[in-house]
Design a protein that fits this description.
Blueprint lengths: L4 H32 L2 H16 L5 H6 L2 H25 L4 H30 L5 H29 L2 H20 L7 H12 L2 H12 L2 H29 L5 H28 L2 H22 L3 H26 L6 H13 L2 H15 L1 H20 L2 H4 L9
Length: 404
């Protein structure tokens, strides 16, 4: 399948984009904390990184109908340009650098947010149906592997080289990705013709309404609401990882290592999710994974030191499981022609409070202290699990494909 030139160019283009995204996210989050030594600023940075996800609801109809090759090339080139701008700004120094960095973050995040679903939508065009699962698996494994590797490498690079070198290297990665996307050959096919016909009957806003109408069903909301609350609480952990890492060692390597063990835990969770889903009902999986995630962080932060690595790894296993289960559920429930709209609508709903969670996560340590904030947050996740346990519709939940 890799012999297929289109798939190869898409695959390696995505590899370079993944490398660039991993490097700049970790570098910028560490840079913001290093420049300010203030969790409030990392909270703001985290919220800005998450903000474009809130508006993913509006991307679905655009992604379905855009010139995908052109968008991929333009967006990756824009990411390269933004990396060069950050490189020049940081090299020049100045008191306003931190504010300009914060201003650029949401634009970077928006470009990434738009690029990945476009890449996913192209896979069915480049491989035959029997290879579709294999192709998606290759893409997912590559993405997870790159995230794991560069989470670790970025911390080392920050420690032994310089931020400017990483930013310049990032620009090169995005340029290479754009070159590979330029080599894609996407011929006008019957799918495009069908879309043009459909456009006469369906407008952008009616597509959005269809997605909203689907997720308003009570069975769907019962799945979404717990994730909405959970994501708000998870965001407070994410933005505090640089500060948590400095409680272990003062080096950026500690931050990279903390992200690495978290990523490794997510991969393990993804691998065992299939086994877990065959043994437990969906409701039981949701409740138990939320419970053990909160418990892992509560124990890890209470003990402190290098034990944080161990319990961060364990916590991420449970998140890896629940993420896969959630994805599978919403691949099975909607009809195929609704997948884009339903999934972007759901993504918007479950991420809508994440920027708020990130801001709270940055602000609360300035009042309560870092350790107290993490303990409180983990305790709230445990309470959420207990509340879910008391709701019979969630406790007994199973996948009902008739919902669609």
């Amino acid at each position: 399948m890799i012999i297929n030139k289109n798939f190869s160019n898409l695959f390696f283009g995505r590899v370079f984009v993944n490398m660039g995204d991993s490097l700049y996210f970790i570098t910028i989050m560490w840079l913001v904390f290093e420049l300010t030594q203030n969790t409030l600023f990392t909270g703001i940075a985290g919220a800005l990184f998450m903000l474009p996800e809130v508006f993913s609801f509006f991307y679905g109809p655009i992604i379905d109908k855009c010139n995908k090759k052109r968008f991929l090339i333009i967006f990756t080139l824009l990411q390269a340009i933004l990396m060069l701008i950050l490189y020049l700004l940081y090299s020049s120094g100045g008191d306003t650098v931190i504010y300009i960095i914060l201003f650029i973050i949401p634009f970077l995040a928006f470009l990434s947010e738009f690029t990945y679903p476009i890449e996913n939508s192209l896979i069915p065009r480049f491989v035959v149906n029997k290879d579709l699962t294999k192709a998606n698996s290759i893409m997912a494994i590559a993405a997870d592997g790159i995230d794991l590797f560069f989470n670790a490498v970025s911390g080392i690079l920050i420690a032994v080289t310089s931020v400017t070198s990483i930013l310049l290297g990032n620009a090169v990665l995005f340029l290479l990705a754009a070159l590979l996307f330029f080599r894609l050959k996407i011929n006008g096919d019957h799918q495009d013709a069908k879309k043009l016909e459909h456009e006469e009957e369906s407008t952008y806003f009616t597509d959005l309404k269809e997605g909203l109408r689907f997720v308003k069903k009570k069975e769907i909301l019962a799945l979404i609401i717990p994730f909405l609350v959970l994501n708000l609480l998870l965001a407070t952990f994410t933005v505090n990882l640089p500060a948590i890492a400095t409680t272990i060692t003062e080096s950026a390597i500690s931050y990279g290592l903390l992200l690495t063990v978290s990523g490794l835990g997510s991969v393990v969770g993804s691998i065992i999710s299939n086994f877990v889903s065959k043994k437990l009902k969906i409701g039981s999986i949701i409740i138990s994974t939320v419970l053990f995630y909160g418990l892992s962080w509560l124990v890890g932060i209470s003990i402190g030191g290098f034990f944080i690595y161990i319990f961060s790894f364990l916590a991420s296993i449970f998140i890896g499981i629940i993420n896969v289960i959630f994805t599978v559920v919403f691949q099975k429930i909607p009809s195929e022609n609704m997948l884009g709209r339903v999934n972007t609508t759901i993504k918007t709903l479950i991420t809508i409070f994440m920027p708020i969670g990130a801001l709270l996560g940055g602000w609360l340590p300035t009042i309560l202290g870092l350790k107290s904030t993490i303990i409180m947050n983990a305790s709230l996740i445990l309470i959420l699990a207990l509340i879910l346990l008391c709701i019979s519709s969630i406790r007994n939940m199973v996948i009902d494909e008739s919902i669609s």
